[in-house]
Design a protein that fits this description.
Blueprint (H helix, E strand, L loop, with lengths): L1 H14 L1 H4 L12 H23 L17 H34 L2 H14 L9 H18 L3 H39 L4 H11 L5 H15 L4 H8 L4 H13 L6 H10 L3 H14 L2 H10 L3 H19 L1
Length: 323
């Protein structure tokens, strides 16, 4: 996508120079412009800090928290290079270097700036939707520089710095987590080439790994590759009596409810000697939408805490059913 953003303006300018040509000046025409660059950077950093503070009050705030979803360390590095280096170059050439120039040929510069900033922020939907006002302001500031000083290199550098400041802490956290998680995730991927009687029990064990990335990956593979074949192995795991094994099996059942396993989940909710496991069983019954079973537990279970948790799960399940 980024090479395309760079190629399109230059191709159009070459094919239709009189219509689609644009000024691709890279360096500032005067050294004093670099002083203005420092002022622009201070303004951008202040806007960024304000945006992060304001978005921290948002319930769905995830500003730059999941730049890379792959667990491979190399994927995190490549994602970081793409976001911090490649994206600023491509976006500044396309949005401020080219599109803003073309819009100014058609309308007043203020209108062109407004359209460019709006499109620039909307392009980042849906990944960064809480930060759209921030992106609009950034697009406006960089656009003003382009209109006033023309040069592309300073706004590319500014964009690189802003992306780096915003994303590097998250990227470091993701990289450290991927280095820790990837060996086990690789083991999980290799299990798919083994016989099912070895693969599924091993996946169930991985599903209770204390590393959330590993457990989530194991559950994903279990659901996607062994959905219809895992029931016998989950039944054995639920009946094992081992807390960790039962915990793993309940996590799998919650993610992908198996109707045949509902009686065993009910039995765990009634009789297991660990409240945490019983609570997980209640959550699993909620995914089954087992209103009758939850009502029975809420009314007759000997443990008051379990009765209270059953009522809570029952209330959540009823609300979701109405929705």
């Amino acid at each position: 996508f980024f090479p395309l953003m760079v190629a399109v303006p230059y191709c159009l300018a070459r094919i239709m120079p009189n219509v689609a040509g644009f000024d691709n000046q890279w360096r500032p025409s005067a050294r004093s412009h670099w002083l203005w660059f420092l002022g622009m950077m201070l303004l951008l950093l202040a806007v960024e800090k304000l945006a992060i503070w304001l978005m921290s009050f948002h319930d769905d705030w995830f500003f730059m928290s999941n730049i890379v979803t792959d667990v491979k360390p190399s994927a995190v590095v490549f994602g970081g290079v793409s976001f911090v280096l490649l994206a600023p170059v491509a976006e500044e050439i396309f949005w401020r270097g080219y599109l803003l120039e073309q819009l100014r040929k058609l309308t007043h510069w203020k209108v062109a700036l407004l359209i460019q900033s709006s499109l620039f922020s909307l392009l980042h939907l849906p990944c960064f939707w809480p930060s759209l006002p921030y992106l609009f302001v950034v697009g406006t500031i960089l656009g003003i520089w382009r209109i006033r000083f023309r040069s592309l290199l300073p706004i590319i550098l500014a964009h690189i710095i802003i992306n780096g400041v915003v994303s590097l802490p998250s990227l470091k956290t993701q990289y450290d987590a991927s280095v820790k998680s990837y060996p086990k995730c690789r083991e999980i991927d290799l299990l798919t080439s083994k016989p099912i009687e070895k693969a599924v029990p091993a996946l169930i064990r991985f599903a209770s790994d204390p590393d959330e990335v590993v457990s989530a990956h194991a559950l994903s593979v279990l659901k996607n590759d062994y959905r219809s074949k895992a029931v016998p192995y989950l039944k054995v795991a639920l009946a094992s009596g081992d807390k960790r094994t039962v915990d793993s099996a309940l996590a799998a059942v919650t993610l992908c409810p198996y109707p045949d396993l509902r009686p065993q989940v009910q039995k765990i909710a009634w009789s297991f000697d660990d409240q945490n496991i019983q609570a997980l069983a209640l959550i699993a019954l909620g995914t089954y939408e087992d209103q009758e079973g939850l009502q029975s537990i809420a009314q007759r279970h000997p443990d008051e805490n379990i009765r209270r948790m059953a009522k809570q799960v029952l209330g959540i399940s009823s609300t979701e059913s109405q929705d």
